Every structure is written in C-alpha cells, then in structure tokens.
User: Fold these one by one.
Assistant:
Number 1:
Amino acid sequence: MILAKTTIGPRHHGRRMTLKQFEFARVEDGYTAELARGYVVVSEVANYFHLMQIMAIKRVLGAYDAAHPGLIHAIAGTMECKLIVSALDSERHPDLAVYLTAPKGRKDRTLWRTWVPELVAEVVSEGSRDRDYTEKRDEYWTLGVKEYWIVDAKLKQVLVLRRGRSQWTEKTLAPADACETKLLPGFKLSCQAVFDAGGDEE
C-alpha cells in the first residue's frame, strides 16, 4: 500500500494507486505526476519549447484579464491547480486552466474536488499525445469543463472542443487562424504566434 505521505517519483510510474492515496502525496522536485484512471503517470517538468507555448497563451490571457477586469477569476498552471475526476479515479494538472468564478464553500486543499475551470488548455508533447487527445478529452467532459483547447505544434493545429448537449463539438484551427471563445468576449489568440513562441524543438 502506498501512503499519502509517500513522495512520488519515477519509480512509481505505471503503478496503481487510489485517488485517496494520490491526492495529497508529494512529488519529487523536477517531476510532475498525474493519476490516470488509477495509474500513476510521472513526467519530467516541461521543456523550454513546451513552456514558451504555454507562456504565449498565458500572456494573451493576462493582457485580456487586465483589459477586462472581473471576467476572469484565476488563470492557473500545472503546479497551481488540479482537476479531480473522481468518477474515473483521475487527477489531472492541465497546462492552463481558466476559472471565471471563485470556488464555493471551503478554500482549503479539498477545494479542487469541486472547483472546475470553464476553459482548459493542453500543449501536446510526444509523451502526452494519447493523454491529451483521448484520456483528458473524456475526463474534462465528465468534469464539466466548457472548452478544451489542444495545442499541437507538431501538427501545426489547435483543436478546440466546445461543450455540446451530449458531446464535444470540434473545430480545428490552422496557424493562420485565431482562437476565440464566447467565454471571453473579444479574446483573440493567434495560433501562429503560439507555434512561433515554441521555436524549433531539436
């Protein structure tokens, strides 16, 4: 049995763990960890190219927030939030999560069990491709996320998933397109600018 006080590291990758055991466990420095359908997934902290794409999106969101005070409550990154999908025994740490409202009730470490962002963005890396396109697609739907952006520099596309009545509606954006959302009126993100920010990964 793995106790909650265990420090999770590469040796735990692929091992089974319950959400209860995982939720408050520590993670070794230099790594990030998620729980995927009851299995631990340990990854190294994102590389420079991945980070620059996240920063390109975050800067535009930050500028929008400054120009439209009160519309965005919080913009959180991988180490600042977590999405707990109890029904699927998963805990996810998205690259970016946008919360439009404050959490209700208690604001201690248990708030992540009920506080759901309206918008989530993931920047795809080779190690996360299946998780981003398949697993998280289902989990973010189950959780109630309204929009999910999958930013894929290798394919030079942004897949925008918007919540429909019974499933996601899809829109694929090319580099020349801009990412917009009804959640943030007037917001516009250049897809090409995001890909350019990442540069050429060697």
Number 2:
Amino acid sequence: MNFFHWLTAHGLVMAIASLVYVVHSHVMQQRRQPSAAIAWMLFILLVPYLALPAYLIFGSRKLPRPGAQHLAEPMSVGNLQHWAIDTLVALGQPAPAAYTDLQVHAGGEAAQNALLSLLASARKSIDVCTFILARDPLGEAVVNHLCERARAGVRVRLLLDGMGSLMRRPPDLQRLLDAGGTFALFVSPLRSPLKGRTNLRDHRKLVLVDADEYDGRLWSGGRNLAAEYFQGLPGAMPWRDLSFELGGPVIGQAVALFEHDWRFARGLPPDSLTQSFATVGAVQQADGAQLVASGPDQADDTVHALLVSAAYRAQRRMSLATPYFVPDAALLMALCMAARRGVRVDLLLPARSNHRLSDFARGRALRALAQAGGQIWLTKGMLHGKLVVVDESLALAGSANLDSRSLFINYELMFAFHLETDVGQFQSWFDSERADAKPFSAQPPGLLRDTLEGLLLWTGFQL
C-alpha cells in the first residue's frame, strides 16, 4: 500500500471513529465537560485505532433515563428559600426528611464498634452496599455477622462493586449463600465490554438495618469495609476517615436507592418504588437531611452542581476534606472566587495519598487555590474522609471525592444536613482533623513538572 492509499484509509478510520463518537454521544445523551469532550476528540483524531475501542469500552458516562420525573416543590425556610434544598430538589433529589439520633463517629474504633453492633442488632433485614470488602479481620468480622444473622432468618443482601472486588479480594462469600444470604456484583468485571459499562463503579457506602420507608437504622460515610479504614492492621497506621449513623424517616430515601441499585446489579427492571427515589420519604422537613445520589443513574451531575453553587453562595467559610483534589475548571474557579471575595476556604487532604498520580495531578489546582487566598492543610498519614461544610447551613458527607471520577463517572452517595447543631458536629470533626495538619506552601513548578502535570490532566480525564 503506497502512502496515498494509507493516508486515505487512515482518514476514513478517523472519520468513522469521529462519527461513532458524535452519534453515540447524541443518542445516549452523554453530556461531558468540555475538557473531557476535547480530550476524547483529540485521542480519536490522533490514534483512532486505539481510541475507538477505548471509547466503546470506557466512554459511557450516563445511563439511559426514563421519562421526566415528578420533582418536589421548593421548600421555604422561614421567609427565605434555602438555596441548598432548592438546588437539590431541582436536580431531582428528594426533599429533606426528618432524622433522629445522628452520631458522627469520633474515629475508627468507634466506627467499627458501631458497625458491628448495628449488624448484630438486626431482626428483619440487612442491606450492605460497599466498594471494597476486604479479606482481612474487619471484612471477615462483617461477613461473620452477616452469616449469623442470615442463619437466624434475617434477610441479608450484600452488593459489591465489580472493580472493587478485583482491587481487594473479598472473603469467601459462599458461606453467606449457604447461610441463606444473597450477594451481587455491581457491573461484574467479566461483563462484556461491548455493553459499554466496564468503566462504571459503584462507590457508594451504605448499611441499612431493619429499614423501611419510615424508619430503621443507617450507617454510611467514606469507609470501605477493610481494616485500614477502621483500626488498621498490626504495624500499619489506620486511615483517617469519616462515617456516621442515624435513624428516622430519611432512611426511606436510602431504602429506595438501594433497591434501585440492587435491581440494576441483578439485571431486573426498576419497580415503581425505585424508578424515582426523589418522591420517596415521609413528611418534608426543612431542617432534616437529604440523600444526594450522583452517577450515571442521575440526569445531572448532582454533587458537582451543588458544590459549585455552594462556592458561590458561601458567605463566611467553606471547609472541604478529601483524599484526592483534582477538580474540573468550573469547580476550581468557583472555589477560587469564593476565596477571593473573602470567604475562608479551608481544604484538608493528605500530604501523601494512596494514589501517587492523583497527588502529582493536584499540583495545579492547589497552587491556583492558594494564590486565590485559600488555606490548604496537609495531614500526616492517609486521610480518606469526604466532607464539605458551608457556613453553618450545610454539611455534605458521604462517599464522593473532589475529583472528576467521583463527580462525573462513579455512582456516589452523599447526605446533606441542614440543622445547624448537626452541621456543627461535622465542622467539629473537620477542625479536629485539621488541628495537627501542616499548611501547604505553593512552589512555582519547573518546566518539566508543569508539562507533565498538563499531560496527566489531559490523559486522565476518563480513568
């Protein structure tokens, strides 16, 4: 084949790959951030032979959605509408509902004791959703409790992420089946990549005990079910993380979301309850809590939209804790603008996380925020907690990191709290974790580092 024929064939491949990208994005309504869309197009134009298969395997960001759902009416707090509540309801999330007995765990030991005690107390049902269930003392203890309760006649369902089960080998779950429990993998790693869901990960962390539409007990936060997220292993420091538990009617929202995820993982069609969890819940209560789901099953990027709104709405202080800080341009600009207009923006993250590439890629964002007046704090040891507190009016806690994978691709679960006293509980956790952190000092990057950061941010837009 001469050069002209090769060039013609190459151009045809580029045209076909570009057409597939455009048509698939339109038909599947795959709205992307501009930087991600540009990166995919450049990848396709430069290396279409690799880019097209990669797009078909990893490119799906949103799943097809049913018709428009009924949304709750905006709520008023006093004579003023609460911006966070109105924003979430407009994004298809449920209105706030009452909750009781919120407990923010002081540390890994308290979180572990609360989790195991909660499992042991089950009399009717246990539903567990987690990204990682490790084959270590903590994971084995969890499975032992699940088996014991299943043998006692409690309905036990365990939902594990497929990628998480590859990253950390889970305990032997055959004994759970033998005891009468059930488990499912959310997007099995053995699923055909041609179905376009290989890159979807369920990062939600949720434990429901004796829960129904009106009450029960809920345990949630950022902790995977592995020893390092609690008390650690001998000779290794435990990670610093955030989890909490509560009761009350808001649990109905979590019940509906778990049912939605469970049926998806089992290949079942959604029933009337799970088609729109935004309408589930008891009497709306303005100072209650809201479940905030984010991911391919939501029409909008809910957590990202709320964070951008929060940065522009904040009046006095924003406190943000995350293990990974690689925000997109819109969120970074919003945080920088908040700092420039006098809002105290405190960002807490580990000096070294468990993902070195993320640590390298965060450099540009940290320098920009520091230059705008934000205060950045680096913890000794691994910080894995995820929290955003805005003034005294909003605390957002759960599983979502401040990076593009969590905000635009993963299935994530957060809870928004609006009661001032409980927002204060989460602020106290943040202040305690920040107490022994060291301030970040921004240094101008060299040419090589600046170039490598840019390349990493460009190539890492999807993975």
